Amino acid sequence: MLHDVGMDIGGSTSVSFPRGEVRGRSTVVATFPVDGRHGTVVAETPFHPLDHTWPDQPADTGTIGGLPVADCVTGAVMDGEETVHLGPDIPVRRGTPGWSWLVVHVTDDPVTDAEVELAVDAEARRSLSAGHTACHLAALALNAALAGRWRKEVPADGLGHPDFDQAAITSSRIVPGGSVDVYRLGKSLRRRGFSAEGLAAELPEIAQRVDALLKEWVAADAPVRIDSPGPELTARRTWHCGLPGAEVSIPCGGTHLSRTSELGSVGVTLELSEDGAELTMHTVTG
Ligand SMILES: [Zn+2]
Q1: 254 C-alpha vs ligand 1 centroid, how far in Å?
Q2: 132 C-alpha vs ligand 1 centroid, how far in Å?
Q3: How far is the CA of 251 from the centre of ligand 1 (A)?
Q4: What is the CA(57)–ligand 1 centre distance, in A?
Q5: How close is the Cα of 256 to the center of ligand 1, in Å?
Q6: CA angle in degrees (0–180, nearest 5) for 200-201-205
Q7: Residue 203: which pLDDT band, with cuts at 50, 70 and 90?
Q8: Virtual CA dihedral for 248, 282, 166, 252, nearest 10 degrees?
Q9: Which one, of 210, 213, 220, 240, lies nearest residue 228 by Cα?
Q10: Ligand 1 centroid, distance to 82 Cα (angstroms)
Q11: Residues 85, 6 contacting (CB under 8 angstroms)
Q12: Distance 32 CA to ligand 1 centre (A)
């Protein structure tokens, strides 16, 4: 579905969610119909939209100009064009040059003001931020717990462990207060040197090792921050965490807490599919 805005949008949306903002006031840049509803683009927003390339963190909820935001999606418009592509219909990868990248706030009623207040549901945001911070920490802990299963050299994570997470992940979903990460243990991973032998039997012990590391990292009250090379939606942002012994960084477009202690507690459950080809990690905070 194409959405004609009838004007030159003139640049990507600036976003304030990477620095933890949940409120803002901004000029309306464009409004256009979105499948019987209404899309609004502003110059700067605190709203985190669902990413179309790696849709891990769900969209923020809240209000724009006092109207409930029913959905918040990524939009893209090619420079010099007036047609916005939305979400899965965007034909290029996140951040492709020559395109403007937009946060599109979808409402049931039209936004008519030239300037609007934006307010994200702060409680919902906080539980997604907790889930996302826990997700990254759990991935690092899983890398550590599986380090002994690699028979060949593979790229290491920020703590020096073989990066199982990066090598095997097929999907990551942030949920309120947690995450669900799915890893593929196929032939290509084995060819790269990962041994899945006896994994099913060892899973409880691996989960225990992951939980012990997470407990240590929460107790360490490590600082978390997002570095951004620019204000635009698709700037290549990086998550940093000052864990004991190393400052770790992971590319990330989402939102996070500012200290690991804010998580309270974090634990994982690990589940192997019947055919042994898929490992699922559920991370829960509390
Ligand atoms: Zn992330």
Answers
A1: 5
A2: 6
A3: 7
A4: 8
A5: 8
A6: 105
A7: very high
A8: -50
A9: 240
A10: 31
A11: no
A12: 30
The C-alpha atoms of residue 48 and residue 70 are separated, in whole angstroms, by 13
Per-residue tokens: 167:
């090598």
Ligand 1 center–CA 253 separation, angstroms: 6
pLDDT for 34-83, tens place per residue?
999 999 999 999 999 999 999 999 999 999 999 999 999 999 999 988 89
What DSSP string describes 207-232?
A: HHHHHHHHHHHHHTT-BEEEE-SSSB
> Which segments within 88-220 are labelled E, that is strand?
99-107, 115-120, 169-175, 178-184
CA of 25 to the centre of ligand 1 (A): 26
* Cα 140 to averaged position of ligand 1 atoms, centre (Å): 12
In angstroms, the CA 179 to CA 140 distance is 14
Comparing C-alpha atoms, which of 66, 70, 64, 59 is closest to residue 42?
64
Under the banding of pLDDT at 50, 70 and 90, the label for residue 1 is low
Q: How far does the centroid of ligand 1 lie from the alpha carbon of residue 111, in Å?
A: 31
Q: Is the pLDDT of residue 232 over 90?
A: yes
Ligand 1: distance of its center to the CA of 280 in Å?
A: 17
Written as one letter, the residue type at 60 is D
DSSP letter at 165 equals H
